[in-house]
């Protein structure tokens, strides 16, 4: 408040001093013109405001000249002068305020910029220790910005650390199946007369390890390609029923190996508007997760139906109930529900995170519920283009 009052007093003094200077300049001009012009100003005043008339003395009959001030002319002149002076003073005040305010704003911006840089470049400093009272609002906002930046930096560091650890972990695990494949192929190569039963056994083991090696390599590609915000959607009308049936057919070997079956409940005429390739990826990731965490010899039920302006698709499987605290984290990047699964059955922890981002890109939602050993994933997508 003291700084603002001081600024106002200085500004008022500047206006008063400016008015006095203008008055002195005008008086000086009048004086110089009148002195060096041999009474030019006074002659102009007499000619403008003094009227001369011839009068006759009633007693003597003599004529004489009489001069009188023309008050109408004086009033008209003063009125014009007042208007001109008022306009001039208004213009002076306007431009004075304009340039003064512009300078003050520039000074304030400069000072605020210095304070912001000082605050942002200093760790563990409170905003009130840097920003003065008149900059308190800026200080509060910068404190919020700094807090958000710190949070994002921490999240980024944690994500990079987890990603780096996962890449190291996967790279290490690549050696195990590769070594096994090379070992069994070497045995087959060195013993061409090996019994058929033993040969079939070694070939089967080598094939299983090669499949695991392919799975790990796919996880590598999944991690390196994980940046969906830069991938545009190519939307079209999709035959949803056919897509789900095709997906179930593709999963038949995986379902059979785990002792599961898939059941679809949906109208054959269901249509959906979206990116077919990416939505297929969503459904594949969810179904893959359902198979991995379902009890053997159970049915995975897939349901699709229209609900108002949205298409609701659900995937339900019987398995261990997911704890509530983990249920809130299963869509996070690199989160693995069961760390004890190890590299042989666990994935990179990207499937559900990718599925959620694709669904949200389509303007939909993806959520999960788990209770009484029943886990259900719900996908909600708009039926038509928004």
Describe the protein.
By secondary structure, this protein is of the alpha+beta class. Helix content is 61%, strand content 16%. It is built from 12 helices and 9 strands. The strands form 3 sheets. It has a 5-stranded mixed sheet. A hairpin with a 2-residue loop joins strand 8 and strand 9 (374-382). It is elongated. The two termini are 53 Å apart. Residues 339-346 have low confidence and may be disordered.
The residue-averaged pLDDT reads 79
As laid out across the biggest beta sheet, the strand order is 4-6-7-9-8
Number of strands: 9
Outline: elongated
Number of helices: 12
Instruction: Outline the low-pLDDT stretches.
Output: 339-346
Question: How helical, in percent, are the residues?
Answer: 55-70%
H-E string:
HHEEHHHHEHHEEHEEHHHEE
Backbone structural class: alpha+beta
Q: What can be said about the biggest beta sheet?
A: 5 strands, mixed
Radius of gyration: 45 Å
C-alpha termini separation: 53 Å
Beta fraction = 15-25%
């Amino acid at each position: 408040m003291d700084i603002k009052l001081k600024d106002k007093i200085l500004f008022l003094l500047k206006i008063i001093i400016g008015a006095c200077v203008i008055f002195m300049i005008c008086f000086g001009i009048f004086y110089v013109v009148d002195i060096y012009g041999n009474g030019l100003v006074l002659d102009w005043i007499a000619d403008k405001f003094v009227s001369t008339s011839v009068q006759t003395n009633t007693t003597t009959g003599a004529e004489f000249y009489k001069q009188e001030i023309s008050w109408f002319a004086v009033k008209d002149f003063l009125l014009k002068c007042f208007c001109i002076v008022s306009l001039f003073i208004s213009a002076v005040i306007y431009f004075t305020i304009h340039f003064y305010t512009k300078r003050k704003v520039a000074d304030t911006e400069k000072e605020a910029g210095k304070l912001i840089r000082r605050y942002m470049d200093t760790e563990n400093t409170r905003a009130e220790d840097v920003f003065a009272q008149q900059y308190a609002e800026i200080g509060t906002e910068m404190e919020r910005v700094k807090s958000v930046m710190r949070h994002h930096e921490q999240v980024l560091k944690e994500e990079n650390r987890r990603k780096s650890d996962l890449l190291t972990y996967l790279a290490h695990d690549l050696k195990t199946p590769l070594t096994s494949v090379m070992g069994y192929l070497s045995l087959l190569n060195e013993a061409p007369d090996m019994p058929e039963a033993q040969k079939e056994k070694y070939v089967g083991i080598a094939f299983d390890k090669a499949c695991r090696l392919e799975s790990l390599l796919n996880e590598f590609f999944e991690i390196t390609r994980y940046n969906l915000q830069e991938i545009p959607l190519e939307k079209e009308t999709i035959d949803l029923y056919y897509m789900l049936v095709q997906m179930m057919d593709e999963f038949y070997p995986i379902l059979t190996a785990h002792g599961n079956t898939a059941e679809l409940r949906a109208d054959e005429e269901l249509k959906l508007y979206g990116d077919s390739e990416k939505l297929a990826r969503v459904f594949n990731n969810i179904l893959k997760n359902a198979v991995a965490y379902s009890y053997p010899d159970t049915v995975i039920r897939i349901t699709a139906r229209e609900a108002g302006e949205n298409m609701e698709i659900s995937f339900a499987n019987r398995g261990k109930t997911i704890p509530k605290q983990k249920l809130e984290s299963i869509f996070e990047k690199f989160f693995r529900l069961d760390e004890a699964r190890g590299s042989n059955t666990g994935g990179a922890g990207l499937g559900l995170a990718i599925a959620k981002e694709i669904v949200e890109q389509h303007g939909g939602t993806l959520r999960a519920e788990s209770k009484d050993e029943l886990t259900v994933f719900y996908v909600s997508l708009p039926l038509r283009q928004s």
